[in-house]
Amino acid sequence: MTETRATSSSSERRPTQDGRTGLGLFLRQVIAELRKVIWPTRDQLVTYFLVVLAFVLFMIAFVSLLDYAFNKAAFGIFG
Questions:
Q1: Residue 25 burial (C-beta neighbours within 10 Å; 0-12, 13-18, 19+)
Q2: Which candidate, 1, 28, 57, 75, has a CA 20 to 30 Å from the CA of 12?
Q3: How do the pLDDT tens digits run along the chain, 79 residues long?
Q4: Helix, strand, or coil here: 13?
Q5: How many whole angstroms separate alpha carbon 20 and alpha carbon 13?
C-alpha cells in the first residue's frame, strides 16, 4: 500500500513557534473568504434596510412610551 503525503503550498504556511502567521497570508485568506460570500442584490438590500428601519423606529417609539409611563408613575408616587 502506498502512502500519500499532502504537500503544502506556499499559501498554506505553518504558523511560527509563537502561533503567528504573516500579514500576507492573513490578507489572502480574508480575500478568499470574501469571495465565498453571497452578496445581496440591490432590491434585497433596500428591502432589508426598510425592515430594519421600521423595526428600529418601532422600538424607539415603544421604549419612549415606556419611559414616559414610568416617568409619570414615578412622579405620581414620589412627586
A1: middle
A2: 1
A3: 666 665 555 555 666 666 777 999 999 999 999 999 999 999 999 999 999 999 999 999 999 999 999 999 999 999 7
A4: coil
A5: 10
